[in-house]
Amino acid sequence: MDLVGLLKSQFLCHLVFCYVFIASGLIVNTIQLLTLLLWPINKQLFRKINCRLSYCISSQLVLLLEWWSGTECVIYTDPQAYPKYGKENAIVVLNHKFEIDFLCGWSLAERFGVLGGSKVLAKKELAYVPIIGWMWYFTEMVFCTRKWEQDRKTVSKSLLHLRDYPEKYFFLIHCEGTRFTEKKHQISMQVAQAKGLPSLKHHLLPRTKGFAVTVRSLRNVVSAVYDCTLNFRNNENPTLLGVLNGKKYHADLYVRRIPLEEVPEDEAECSAWLHKLYQEKDAFQEEYARTGTFPETPMVPPRRPWTLVNWLFWASLLLYPFFRFLVNMVSSGSSLTLAGVVLLFFVGCPPSKD
């Protein structure tokens, strides 16, 4: 392990990231709370401000993937469709096989400049989680209980609110509903067989109702569906802990732009269309497993500097008082304080196993 790799794996580095994320996140959440005063006066200004406040939080996680880990993501797509990415609203359909696939979706949004305004379909319980959940609440994220009878009206209502959203956004959705595992796949294929649907090898059976209501609610506002199929080279199995430890992964993402006019309006026909889409995604994954590549032209959108600039701003603002506090503690001369600092050092910087 080289010196940089060793440094990235140290607990003290992780502690710095966590401190900056939590402290800045709580500050941003407080500011977001104050912006509620704007809602009855100027709703669109409230939304624009919260898009930028949201970016202050979500971009820190993207920074870990793009700058700290250095993970590379090659996009395979139609060169004629590429210039439209980031310049239109889109529904992004992601496969859900890897622990960091949501982070790759955020990275895609960041590379095309729409991370701050982008949306997800998330569990309702997450709205009560400080920092990320509260941030999502203020940016009008769409929450669901996964009980369709309860969600039908609430999800549709939330989506309709996005029709006049002032910022460009990707609406990221995992139609499989949960991350792929062999056990879940076996159960899912039993359901597919009972319903007379074709089996899938690399995906779970998509849940069609949420997708259908999303398309119906955002039609004429969203221009296209971006069908995104993600995989990693050399059978890599990326984890969030690996990203935090600075491990570099190599992602390949196949992006197909499908104009929304091609998605049927009728719910039953839309469901059939989505099942066909997942059969095609399965074929792409099978081809990738055989050849190690996706169709279309490989492209690498450049990393934007703003995730790094944002983190450096918050780090410079928050780390100085933090380290000054530590220095004051050490200079106090307390034996207990000194022992605690020494213990923290040894826990944070364990000896290398190499």
Automatic annotation (TrEMBL):
Catalysis performed (reactions): 1-octadecanoyl-sn-glycero-3-phosphate + (4Z,7Z,10Z,13Z,16Z,19Z)-docosahexaenoyl-CoA = 1-octadecanoyl-2-(4Z,7Z,10Z,13Z,16Z,19Z-docosahexaenoyl)-sn-glycero-3-phosphate + CoA; 1-octadecanoyl-sn-glycero-3-phosphate + (9Z,12Z)-octadecadienoyl-CoA = 1-octadecanoyl-2-(9Z,12Z-octadecadienoyl)-sn-glycero-3-phosphate + CoA; (4Z,7Z,10Z,13Z,16Z,19Z)-docosahexaenoyl-CoA + 1-(9Z-octadecenoyl)-sn-glycero-3-phosphate = 1-(9Z-octadecenoyl)-2-(4Z,7Z,10Z,13Z,16Z,19Z-docosahexaenoyl)-sn-glycero-3-phosphate + CoA; a 1-acyl-sn-glycero-3-phosphate + an acyl-CoA = a 1,2-diacyl-sn-glycero-3-phosphate + CoA
Pathway(s) it belongs to: Lipid metabolism; Phospholipid metabolism; CDP-diacylglycerol biosynthesis; CDP-diacylglycerol from sn-glycerol 3-phosphate: step 2/3
Q: Molecular function (GO) terms listed?
A: acyltransferase activity
Q: Membrane spanning segments where?
A: 12-39, 329-349
Record's subcellular location: Endoplasmic reticulum membrane
Residue ranges occupied by any Phospholipid/glycerol acyltransferase domain in the UniProt entry: 90-212
Keyword line? Acyltransferase, Endoplasmic reticulum, Lipid biosynthesis, Lipid metabolism, Membrane, Phospholipid biosynthesis, Phospholipid metabolism, Transferase, Transmembrane, Transmembrane helix
EC annotation from Swiss-Prot or TrEMBL: 2.3.1.51
In the bilayer, the protein is annotated as: Multi-pass membrane protein
For this chain, the family text in UniProt reads: Belongs to the 1-acyl-sn-glycerol-3-phosphate acyltransferase family.
Write out the function statement from the record: Converts 1-acyl-sn-glycerol-3-phosphate (lysophosphatidic acid or LPA) into 1,2-diacyl-sn-glycerol-3-phosphate (phosphatidic acid or PA) by incorporating an acyl moiety at the sn-2 position of the glycerol backbone. Exhibits high acyl-CoA specificity for polyunsaturated fatty acyl-CoA, especially docosahexaenoyl-CoA (22:6-CoA, DHA-CoA).
Q: What is this protein called?
A: 1-acyl-sn-glycerol-3-phosphate acyltransferase delta
